[in-house]
Write a structure and sequence with these properties.
The chain has 141 residues and is α/β, with parallel strands linked by helices. It has helices at residues 5-8, 30-41, 89-101, and strands spanning 23-26, 47-52, 56-61, 64-70, 81-85, 105-112, 121-126, 132-137.
């Protein structure tokens, strides 16, 4: 099959489909978690975009919320794992450093995880509730 010039000049589709629109979960200490995520997510370009009555904080990019922490309800039992997309490896490094400075616990220093694929570059921290929060970049160096 021949492709037109317009088709070949288009960027390749994202190899990692985005299936989830937003996520929210309850935390044990709302103010502590809100402060942690405000600092930890900033290097990824994710900021606090809205807050609901001091009981839910919505983080996102470009004013669009996609990541919520909630003060009501029971925190997740067991360990929740959430991987957040970084645009660059430097953002992964900055996320890891900021999360540790914000009180997170190291759960895997920034580095290539070739078991997933050759360009998988991730870093892991445990948030104040022990959830495994990851930043990952899928691009080559």
């Amino acid at each position: 099959m021949r492709q037109s010039k317009e088709m070949t000049d288009q960027p390749a589709p994202d190899p990692v489909p985005r299936m989830v629109d937003h996520i929210g979960f309850a935390v044990a200490d709302y103010e502590r978690s809100k402060a942690f995520y405000a600092r930890a997510l900033e290097p990824l370009g994710v900021t606090l975009v809205m807050e609901f009555g001091g009981a839910a904080a919505a983080f996102g990019k470009s004013g669009r919320p996609s990541f919520f922490v909630e003060g009501h309800g029971e925190p997740v039992r067991g360990r929740l794992h959430i991987a957040l997309r970084a645009e660059t490896r430097a953002q992964v490094d900055a996320f890891h450093a900021a999360a540790l400075e914000a009180g997170g616990t190291d759960n895997g220093a920034p580095g290539v995880r070739a078991a997933y694929h050759p360009d998988y570059y991730g870093a892991y921290v445990l948030d104040p509730d022990g959830n495994n929060i990851e930043a990952v970049c899928h691009d080559a160096e």
